[in-house]
Amino acid sequence: IESAIKKVGGKAFIKLNWTAPQDSSWINGTLQCKSALDVFGLLKASELIVADLTMNPTNLVLAIREWRELEPSMEFRCFVKSFTLVAACQRKCDTCYNYDDSDLNNIRERLATFYDSCLGHSISTDGDFVFDVYLDTRSTWLVGLNILGPPTNPILFEWKEILSCREKKKNDKFLPSLPTKPTNIELRVAVASSDEGFQKGEHSSLPVIPGSSEFGSSRVPADTMELFKNGGIEALMDILQKQKKEDNDSSSSSSISSSDDTK
Q1: What would you report as the CA-atom Rg of the chain, rounded to the nearest whole angstrom?
Q2: Which phi and psi (to 5°) does residue 131 adopt?
Q3: Start-to-end CA span in the chain (Å)
Q4: Those residues with Cβ within 8 angstroms of residue 214's Cβ, 6 or more apart along the chain or in another chain
Q5: Residue 125's pLDDT is what?
Q6: 151: cis peptide before it, omega within 30°?
Q7: Pairing of the two strands 186-188 and 190-193
Q8: Angle between helical axes of 222-229 and 232-262 (0-180°, round to 10)
Q9: Which residues 6+ apart lie within 8 Å of 179 measured at CB?
Q10: Whole-prediction pTM
Q11: Average pLDDT for residues 68-77, to the nearest whole number?
């Protein structure tokens, strides 16, 4: 591992066959690895990696890639259903970027061009998959591939929206509908709203909390997260008050018992 990190320049990004330990970046404040110790720390602390090991216990591969600094606003997740690029959204869902209409149209065009020229005829036998890309000033880079459906994160979509885009019929074989029309791609980005703060995209009012993280729950004990799901601070106060009452009742019972014994 140390040797491989040196070969890619001394700074590496790691992942297994399907999964990167994105939920454990809080340990060092980054996913960047400079040593085998960094690699083991990220892998050991990641719930995503544990799930990957559970689902795919054999033929595992540890990929060590050259580390690159990327502009988060230009990372996108794209959804292909029945060989058709139907939707895309920004990869980092906890930040609002200042895209204007021209930017969004340009992004759609670049995603369509990349899909048609590089992926349309070559990926997945059933035509259903997810791919992540990074758009720099001149080129479009393929970052990763995932299955269409859980456990892949749909980010700013719900899976039922994606999977219902184009239902297959038995014995039908869909061919890529190329060239892709950019206007047919539903592109969602986090947008600011004076009423509800952040929203999931142009066609949804589901809130995204500013400054929150896709993997923020991984930094908090599971029982604490469950508590907040079931009422938050008010639920915590109820539990503490109930516990205090039980302690007082127990103390009173002990006092009475001691008095009786004395008599």
Answers
A1: 25
A2: -135, 145
A3: 75
A4: 22, 92, 93, 94, 153, 155
A5: 64
A6: yes
A7: unpaired
A8: 110
A9: 112, 116
A10: 0.69
A11: 92
Q: Which residue has the tokens 């540890």?
A: 62
Is the Cα torsion angle 148, 154, 159, 165 positive or negative in sign? negative
Is the CB of residue 86 less than 8 Å from the CB of residue 184?
Answer: yes
Query: What's the average model confidence in pLDDT over 114-139?
Result: 86
- With beta carbons less than 8 A apart as the criterion, state whether 80 and 115 touch: yes
Structure token pair of residue 218: 């991984």
105 closest CA partner among 202, 176, 207: 202
For the chain, give the percent of residues with pLDDT over 70: 71
Whether the predicted pLDDT of 223 surpasses 70 = no
Paired tokens of 145: 């591939």
66: tokens are: 């050259």
More confident: 106 or 55? 106
Residue 59 has pLDDT above 70, yes or no: yes
Q: Are 182 and 112 in contact (CB under 8 A)?
A: yes
Give the pLDDT mean for 213-225: 53
Task: State the DSSP string of 20-64.
Answer: --GGGTTTTTSS-BSSHHHHHHHHHH-HHHHHHHHH--SS---EE
CB-based contact 41:50 (threshold 8 Å): no
Q: Determine the pLDDT at residue 209.
A: 40
pLDDT given at position 185: 92
| Contact call for residues 1 and 64 (beta carbons, < 8 A) | yes
Contact residues for 257 (Cβ-Cβ < 8 A; gap 6+): none
Over range 80-85, report the average pLDDT.
89
The number of beta carbons lying within 10 Å of the beta carbon of residue 4 is 15
Average pLDDT over residues 112-116: 94
